[in-house]
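ok so dumb question maybe but i'm new to this and my supervisor (M.) told me to 'just get the structure for DUF4397 domain-containing protein' and walked off. so i did the thing. is this what she meant?? sequence i used:
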Amino acid sequence: MYTNQQLIVIKENPGSTSSPFTIDRITSSGGVTTYNSINSSTELRVFNAMDNNELLTSYNGSLDFHIGGITDSPLIADLNRSAYSDVKTLDYGDYRMDITDPNSTVKLSNSQILSLPTNSDKTVFFYLTEVEEADDGDDDTVEETELYVNSLIASNNAVEGYYHHEIQVVNFIEDFSSVTVYFVPKNSTISTTEHKAINTRAIATKQSLPNDEYDVFVIAKEGASEVLLANTSFELTSDSKNQFLVIEQEDKDIDNYIVTMFNQN
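this is what came out, is it supposed to look like this??
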């Protein structure tokens, strides 16, 4: 007969504040299972990455966000392009989410699903995707373009290091299949920095960075050349929060790209 020793650790809850503690069960092999209160609430934030598009005439640069069906009182009202909402607290569960035009209450998307386990902390990004019909080789027909309203749901990281912080890079540029984001600390360059993230569209990429001052360069490949799309700078200290870094095209017909940073929590 073999005994299996386990360690139970009660610790401060780094996530949703409705429950002050979580329990970790640590096995003798080092495996860790975290248990949250079954009544713990969740936290949610929304980011609007939808640009104006002639195929979506009912959208004018801002949206209302509804949970559980469209009502006269959206959970988040009049959220502008490239803006993020305040944090909202919800009971755990599975929700239908809809977005509408604030001025006409016209529905902008098909009902999409949002699953919020207990103690979860998430950010929902809404963005547009154009899909062109395949060329059939007939010069007398015009290939159509379909427009889709998509959502990306990312889990926020509430566990913050004292010396390191997490940056989640989210890229919504359609002009390039991927971009490379270079985080360049003091006394370094793009060619020497260890910190870079190769990011495809609408997939969150995580990067852990030590506290420092950083210049950020967003670069894409255009043929054999590397093209600078956007740049910004920021500083991480022991008091900093984990961050999102969001890359967008200001207008799909103009080569102008923007970077937005905000706290994950």
